Request: fold
Amino acid sequence: MFKVVSLFSGCGGGDVGLHGGFNFLDNYYSPLQFETIFANEINQKIANIFEKNIGIKPDVRDIREVSNEDVPSHDLLVGGFPCVSFSIVAQNPPRLGIENDISGKLFFEMIRILKDKQPKAFIAENVKGLLSANKGQAIQLILSEFEKAGYNVKYRLLNSADFGVPQKRERVFIVGIRKDIDQEYTFPEPKYFSKESLFTPKYRSLKEVIFDEKDIPDKYYFSERAVEGLMRAKKQMNKGRAQDINNPCNTVGAHLAKVSLNSTDPVLKIDEKYRRFMPREVARIQSFPDSFELLESESTQYIALGNAIPPVLMWNVAESLLTLLNNEVKKEYIPIEIC
Reply:
């Protein structure tokens, strides 16, 4: 088994994908040889969801308070570092600076641990906007920091819908392989497409994961008064809000607990009635198996699920990495023939 340290762990979507051994829709995602041995998640309630499902108790300190000695040796470091605006310090050559927001400094905590522990590989995940920040300069300097930490680095924008997740969620994945390892990482190629063909399956649809309307409690529906208020204000619902259940859902986020008809979060419109998603539906949209247990308040569940890495997407990224790591292990143990 390859040992994993999970940073900014959330409720464990990335770890569910790394471990594998779960069912989603009509597919079985086989177990992978990754074992999470340490996790850090600053939100105690979200950490409770992680512990219930992953089986280890996360360190809930601010990652800046976690010393290198507190982090065990490991083979893979995984982290969806917080989504903040990176800035470029106007120097020659330009340097990576961070907005005053404290969370902006957390990227460098991942770099710190990589430099000290030197695991075989790392996987970092972030929002699509990272590619355009500072007119593309931020991503290049971030890649440079990872390179300086001792890794050959590749990155790609992946859409979860391309891998069988009923959600159009685009995220940047950065994968690094330690420079002394003579292996090159290859990103997985899409397996699902927007249109059905003879050889490839089409996108998974929202209707495959939502509940029958007769099973939806009244509290998830917007009141007639809310709908009438929107119409009286002569406002049109933001483009793409009401979802087509025959296609993947738009990206679900952490605001679903407070979603309104005026916001940008996806909602359902069925039989002229509008409603928000139930937490279990959000979990399914994110590709969590139904065996994944939801606890704490619904507000916490929405935040945790909306910020999570889709397990099926991570499984595909991790499967490609596992092949590489296993090839390296085989090379290390090739017997030497003595003439």
About this structure: The CA atoms of residues 185 and 323 lie 9 Å apart. Helices lie at 13-19, 44-54, 106-117, 137-148, 224-232, 279-285, 298-306, 311-332. The two ends are 34 Å apart (CA to CA).
